[in-house]
Amino acid sequence: MSQHTRAEKDPLGELPVPESALYGVQTVRAVQNFPISGLRPLPMFVDAVVWIKRSAALTHKETGRLEARLAEAIVAAADEVLAGQHRDHFVVDVYQAGAGTSHNMNVNEVLANRANEILGGRRGAYTPVHPNDHVNMAQSTNDVIPTAIRLGVLALLRDLGPALAGLRDRFLDKGREFDDVIKCGRTHLQDAMPIRLGQEFRAYGITIERNARRLNDVGDFLRDLGIGGSAVGTGVNVEPQYPALMIRHLRKATGLDLREGEDRVQLMQSMGDVAAFSAQLRTFAVDLSKIASDLRLLASGPRTGLDEIVMPAVQPGSSIMPGKVNPSIAEMVNQVCFQVVGNDTCVSAAAEHGQLELNVMMPVIAHNVMFSMMILTNAATTLAERCVAGITANVEQCAYWVERSAALATALAPQIGYARAAELSKRSVKENTLIRDLVRKDGVLPEKDIDRVLDVRRMTEIGVPGK
Question: What does the DSSP assignment read for 225-280?
């Protein structure tokens, strides 16, 4: 063996392990087997598994199954990781063996080696703390990883929720600010009846709010934990008091409202709760992408587009066209949303491909759901702070377009009938003449009624124009 490695054995034989590594032979074997993406586990996924190991040590100390000094050393090692230390020792690729056994063992080995150091031992000796016998006591990858996914998603929801609330509030603020700005509505990308810019922006805020509520609703199912299910959900090698104690310690460690699952076999068999949450992330991404695209359309131009809003300039828009400014933040949001839609497609396929008592595709499910939450949180925050908060209305351009809308003829239909109103609409486009001017020129309405019937502000509220 090299002076920079140590020899370790697992059931398949002996391998050299870097002398400085807190991980051990099973992790090395996984690194050799899965040189796939270069992607390492997301920080929250590491935290979630460490929370479980820490809580298990406290539980077994409480029941007397694990010697107190060993439990305390495991807890101390876990606390170091949760404080941000030793992060470069979690090295197994995202795309790994099914169920997440490699990641589970990576965590077991890191905590065991560090616990032994705390107790005066050395790395790789696995005495007095063993990764399987002590750190993984009464656990299986099969109940640890699904529990970790639930914990990680719920923890990330604490960041996503405020990000959505912030974005909602910025849109609602703009809804109030722009309430007096009358503009042309558009359906099928064609002229439609007037709408207030504030109404558009308020609607964006309500869309964000409704998505936040749906995420919280579907997230509630993730509070049911199957920890204690062990290998196949039946709880083999697990003390009867273990599940309830684990929930108590996990609540304290995470600050999350957690529940003991009603049926641990079901919670191990099915990834349905996670898939449902991922699907709701996708729904939010679809709505958010639509809003980002709307903002880009409303800001298009400034001379040859709609130019009804002005986004804050955050960076030069072109390497060749001087002075060009692009809707960069909104473009970023679109791309994030596309990624989330793709992530959910992967989660859906992976959730369906579980067999019998276990879904072995959990590693890719964990990565995609948590990654979606991370990028949506950051995108929503950035959109709110660096785009929406600084949007201004081009009041003159909005007024210009609304007066030229051929759809204003709709307000005449209750007075003169649909057919004659349609004829005026077509003439307005063909002759490039305002509806208002045609009505006056042809004497369609008495002079005193024209402004009352064609009051564009009143057209933005429920009611019949002119009545």
Answer: E-TT-TTTSS-TT--TTHHHHHHHHHHHHH----EE-S-HHHHHH--HHHHHHHHH
CB-CB contact of 429 with 405 (8 Å)? no
pTM of the model: 0.95
Residue 285 sits in the same domain as residue 218: yes
Q: In this structure, what is the dihedral angle of CA atoms 446, 448, 451, 455, given to the nearest 10 degrees? A: -100
In a domain, 240, yes or no: no
Q: Is 428 tagged catalytic?
A: no
* Residues 65 and 239 sit within 8 Å (Cβ to Cβ): yes
| Rounded-to-integer distance, Cα 262 and Cα 265, Å | 9
Tally Cβ neighbours within 10 Å of residue 447: 9
pLDDT tens for 115-160 read 999 999 999 999 999 999 999 999 999 999 999 999 999 999 999 9
**Looking at the predicted structure, is the pLDDT value of residue 2 above 80?**
no
Angle at 140 between CA 139 and CA 146, to 5 degrees: 105
* Domain of 101, in residue numbers: 16-137
User: Is residue 289 domain-shared with residue 222, that is, in the same domain?
Assistant: yes
Q: Choose the catalytic residue: 55, 293, 318, 425.
A: 318
Q: How many domains does the chain have?
A: 3
Report if residue 252 sits inside a domain: no
Pair (337, 211) in one structural domain: yes
> Quick check: bond before 302 cis, omega within 30?
yes
DSSP string, 196-223: EHHHHHHHHHHHHHHHHHHHHHHHGGGG
The string of pLDDT tens digits covering residues 227-276 is 999 999 999 999 999 999 999 999 999 999 999 999 999 999 999 999 99
**Same domain for 344 and 387:** yes
Residue-wise pLDDT for 338-358, tens only, equals 999 999 999 999 999 999 999
Nearest Cα neighbor of 298 from 384, 407, 178 is 178
**Residues 290 and 327 grouped into a single domain:** yes
Q: What angle do CA 146, 150, 155 make, to 5 degrees?
A: 145
Helix count (H) and strand count (E) of the chain? Answer: 16, 8
The Cα 47–Cα 49 span in angstroms is 6
Q: Are residues 133 and 147 in the same domain?
A: no
